[in-house]
Amino acid sequence: MKDGQKGFCFVREARDGAVYLTSYGRASGFCIDPIEKKPLNHFQPGTAVLSFGTAGCNLGCRFCQNWDISKAREHDRLTDTARPQDIVRAAKSAGCRSIAFTYNDPVIFAEYAIDTAVAAREAGIGSVAVSAGYITDKARPAFFEHLDAVNIDLKAFSEEFYGSLCFAQLEPVLDTLRYVRHQTNTWLEITTLLIPDHNDSEAEVATLCEWIVEQLGPDVPLHFSAYHPDYRLDAPPTPRRTLQRARAQALSAGLRHVYTGNIHDQEGQSTYCSGCGRRVITRDGYHVHAYELTPDGCCSACDQPMVGRFGAQAGNWGPRRRRLAIAP
User: Which of the ends of the chain has fewer CB neighbours closer than 10 A, N or C?
Assistant: First the structure.
């Protein structure tokens, strides 16, 4: 790039032979969400998380569900400003257990996210990221070092899908999943948005699930989420039966914790003990109705340890979403 030119993401600019992040300290807004909305079902269930994003993305997904933020040029959406220390102070004051880098991919604003995560850890607050996992091997260690949890969007299990609908590649995402699972202490969950006639076939779901079991292990939670028509892809909404079929496939393939999202499905959104099968966390949407784990995170019926990061009791934030103004 020549001086003054910006990259595909819109927020990195060439200046004096280097590339600068122009969105540092600027956000598209701050909201308090339930942690299950990220979605993270095995990380501090029921608690509130302070969420924010910036603008831009390093993928070009034609089906983007947050396109008004991720496809915006920086001056369109970056209306709020806050330093990392301001964000941490606001999260602590609001009673949030964690801070989420979300809405657009935090890989795009990595320096801002990393500095916020460092400040959060010093204050005893967790940091989580919602990412497509499209990041180089050289950048991964610095990005994930200070994160407590991440949900990675595995958009499909074919190079053709990634190439034609995301303008990206599948293999770097698989490399990221392996890296997070085996070389970090960051808690990992995965989401796949099932799009009718694009990535929802029984064959592709089977291949995806087999890969997760073999490469990451059966304990990584997998979320199948319903697509709704948006942005530039002409496809119908995902039927409820498709998500339920995919969940049944994943469980049959050996995955122990499989969820459905963007639909009402208490069975598919609750958490079950991998030992005795007891429902240990009952969810209705983003609301935790029952929490039957011991203080050390084991099933109250059979004492089987539950994988994830659990407290002595669930939070009670519920499904609320509240906009938050952060004063400098």
Answer: C
